[in-house]
Design goal:
alpha+beta; Enolase-like, domain 1; 12 strands; globular; four-stranded antiparallel beta sheet; binds iron/sulfur cluster; single chain
Length: 328
């Protein structure tokens, strides 16, 4: 591992200042992805800025009914939080479906959003990868790509985003709060991660030195029926092959609110806007769900070995919508 400097920050201002003094540094929280990538030589920061002592480890109920989750709240604590279990069950379910208990005890909310693809070529510095080394090519496109994207990919990169939590946050219309030298800003989770396009080396639109300070779950989706489904190779511990988070409200026999996000099919959580449009104002029924999800997945462009994901994502999405309908 390349030698690196280490700085411990106790306030967000200190953390941002430490970054200004060491451009290209990485913020360290749970370290469950970053440290692995440093050992592999994929990440080679000159400095780590430890943010674990920042006062960002609380879940706070705000006056407007929203819930503010600090960036260093552990995934296991967030999944078990009574307000999350009660008001945003899709988030609790997504968190509990991810990784192992030990990893969830270490991984943080901010780190979960910033985790990097598990594409094997990205993690192997002897292989071409436009995400790790722009311009070097994409080993996965003509190589092993069973787990890769079927929606929104580019000639440069076909990687998927690995987070379960982010998929639930996308369906729940959560926002990400950021702090940087230019001040604070807030962006929707659905606009936080990027599609690969010409620059797959950039996973998100986060600016150099910006720090995630919180995720805010809105009052508008609190207590609406929500759920998460995940298909994977082994139930004990595996990344998704396809997943879906949904929020569904039925009023007077028709769908009055629906949000659907697909996971493990694209470079970011894939908010299924076409499916949502097709379902609004419609009576909830299996054939309506199948039709809407089919419309969304008509845009899929599977590769040689991952066409199965289109059918799998369809079935997972329809299943979560049907289960929510049964509860409405
Ligand atoms: Fe790299 Fe993306 Fe290709 Fe994987 S899919 S090898 S991350 S460029």
């Amino acid at each position: 591992m390349k030698p690196f400097g280490y700085v411990r920050a106790t306030t967000v201002e200190e953390a941002a200042d430490a970054y200004s003094a060491a451009p290209g540094a990485r913020y360290l929280a749970g370290g469950t992805n970053l440290v692995d990538l440093m050992k592999l030589g994929v990440e080679r920061p000159g400095t780590l800025i430890d943010v674990r002592r920042l006062p960002l480890d609380d879940v706070t109920e705000l006056d407007d009914g929203s819930l503010r989750v600090g960036a260093t709240v552990r995934n296991s604590d967030l999944a078990a939080h009574p307000a999350v279990r009660d008001r945003y069950p899709a988030l609790s379910q997504a968190l509990l479906s991810a990784a192992s208990g030990q990893l969830r005890n270490a991984a943080t909310t901010g780190g979960n959003l910033l985790q990097r693809t598990r594409c094997a070529y990205f993690q192997d510095v002897t292989k071409p990868c436009n995400k790790r080394e722009p311009g070097s090519g994409c080993g996965a496109r003509d190589g092993v790509h069973r787990d890769h994207a079927v929606l929104g990919h580019s000639a440069r990169c076909i990687a998927t985003h690995p987070s379960d939590m982010a998929v639930a946050l996308a369906a729940l219309d959560a926002r990400v709060e950021l702090y940087g030298v230019e001040g604070e800003r807030s962006v929707p989770v659905t606009g936080f991660h990027r599609l690969p396009g010409e620059h797959p080396d950039r996973d998100t639109d986060i600016r150099p030195g910006e720090l995630i300070t919180a995720v805010v779950l809105p009052a508008a989706t609190a207590r609406l029926p929500s759920g998460y489904r995940k298909a994977r190779d082994r139930a004990s511990y595996a990344f998704a092959l396809a997943s879906a988070a949904a929020v569904l409200q039925v009023t007077d026999g028709v769908i009055s609110h629906v949000a659907l996000a697909l996971g493990a099919v694209a470079h970011r959580p894939w908010r299924a806007r076409r499916a949502e449009q097709a379902l609004l104002g419609v009576a909830p029924a299996t054939d309506a769900f199948e039709h809407a999800v089919g419309l969304e997945l008509a845009a899929a462009e599977p590769l040689r070995d991952n066409a199965y994901k289109v059918a799998l994502a369809h079935d997972v999405a329809v299943d979560v919508l049907r289960s929510l309908h049964r509860r409405t």
